[in-house]
Amino acid sequence: MTNNQSAAPAEGYSAGASEHEDKAPAGPLARQIGFIHVPKTAGTSVARGLYTALQPRLPVAGFDRSMFGGFDDFQSVSEETRRYVYLRTDELPPDADLIAGHFSLTTIRDRYPASAILIILREPLSRVLSHWTFWRSEAELAQPGWGTWNKYLEASHHSFADFLSDPRVACQTDNVALRLLLWPHPLIPNDNFILNDHDQTLVEEAKARLATLSHVNAIENPQLANDLAVWLDRPFNLIHLKETQSVTARYSSRLADELTLATQDLWHARSRLDLALWLAVCESIMPSADLTALTETVRARSLERYAQLLR
Question: Residue 220 and residue 182: Cα distance in Å, rounded?
Answer without folding.
Answer: 23
